[in-house]
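Assemble and predict.
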Amino acid sequence: MKKFVITISLVMVIGLLLGIFFYNQTPNQALPDIDPQPEEQSIDETPTQPEQIQGIYLNEQIGYSLQNDRLQITFDKGKNWITVPIEKDQLFAGEYNGNKQELIDHSYLLTENRTAFLYAEEPSWDNETIRILFTLDQGKTWMNSVVTEHYMGVRFRKVGFVDDQFGYIIISGGRTMSQEGSNVFLTFAGGQSWQETNNSGVSRLIADGGFVDAKIGFLSFGTINPEAPELYVTQDGGNTWKQATVNIPSEYDKIFVQSETPFIEDDHLAVFVNQGPNGDYKGGLVKGKFISTDKGNTWAFSMEVSPDEANK
Amino acid sequence: MKQTSKKMNLIVGWILFILSIGIFFLQIGFLFFHERLQFEYIDNRLFYVLNMIFVICLFIAILQLLNLEKKWKVFGAVVVLIFMIPNITMISQTNKEIKNIISVSPNFQHVLSLKENTKTGETYYYRSYFGILGRPKEKLPYQTNGRFKVDWLTDDIAAVTYKAKDKTVHQYIGTYGDRGTGISYYYVAAQIYGVWQGKNARITNETEGLSVTVNGRTEIYKWDQVVQFGTLAIVLMKNNEAVWTIALNKDFNVEAAEKGETPGTILLYKATMGKTEPILLKRISSSM
């Protein structure tokens, strides 16, 4: 055993002595020759690839891009990109918390026949001019009209058109805690001019809204912990607003709590009522479908729908 | 009694002998494979330190295991001495050429390793593996002047403050974790929306950038002055110098932030070579 231990020890000592010698011979101490990573690079630069535009597509052909700090749209799958004459920041003016990688939902229309963007000129936070920029010929000519002036901190923004001439804009602003003002503007001239309707008088945070024709329109309120849908209806083009009655079956009480925008279905109106931001019934995405046969005054439960069906 | 003590000596002897064999194979493995696998010891001096531990263990083991005559013991001691001399010389020599900066995280889970070529002022950041091995990850973008300050802001965020050759102050943040699911990349600046308040400090996430108010003085950092490290921290730059680091604290939860719930706290840390403590900030409003 003595021999064994001594032999092994000698082999190891000699081995490592040679190791030290070889280790010092190799240029091991020279630091690697790697290129510095583009470490001190700005966040804005990281995702941009100036040459190739990665669009966000709404369907096969039509899409937009916010790359390179400008808004560009395409109607031919990205072969040609048209720059929209608008500053990117104006699209996100007011109360917006996001990374500006995508346009704000509902704040634009992008179709073959009509493209429109809601935006705000913002000399100061409490003095915004809300404008709409639109084109009917896929960006060859652009038109611009003022929706309202002296607006404060726009939060919710939605634009929609029911036909060529009639359209609506719903905005909200001046939010303090969970109270804000919401306003509805209508056009009967294809977007050239806008008139404000009478105010609904509700100061809860608006969740959604829209018109099904020039007379009948809706506003849905309650974005933070809603307990029941709060749907307001007008049947005279915004002159008067009243709260609609949504009859929630008791088993869906406090489950279906936030109304979306009603739409015309066959000979009646229909609306999906979702579970709000905190719903967890069947995964939280199932919605309740409600039907109205009296132009939106009262709503009766029809069925549960899966999110796929509701998005059709 | 004598028997037990003899048995103890034998056990200690074998343990040390096996330990020295282990170190021997580690070193030989390192010598053969480190170039091919592009591994290094996180501190270059570790190679020589391990050699010395090896020879001391082996010497004690032999004394315990074998009944040697006095002359052989002396011979052994001489061998140890001969073995130690080149190692001790190399330890001081190697650190003159390559300065090693090592810092272990407060929870002993991570090791920050930097190696600076003292002649050229080039410094490399190393990712550590198994606590003692490292691979170069990136080169710091500025030539350094040998002075580094390392502070662990949390168990997985190490802030390295250093002065470049042109005397400007910079920060490099080593990140070893994530505050989300660990799968997706996210922008730190986008996660910390709203208004954050701490002791004599306030951060507001505004449309054009981040506004930082400390002791009543407000500075705005536009988005192109914000540099992100990993998914845990951003450095705010002004006039080509680092001014502040904002780090997501250990209790920060990205999923909560995305849902609009209270996401936890953040830390504001000044870029200075002097002593400074990070300031804790809580969100007081989710809007601007």
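The helical segments of chain A are 2-25, 88-91, 307-310.
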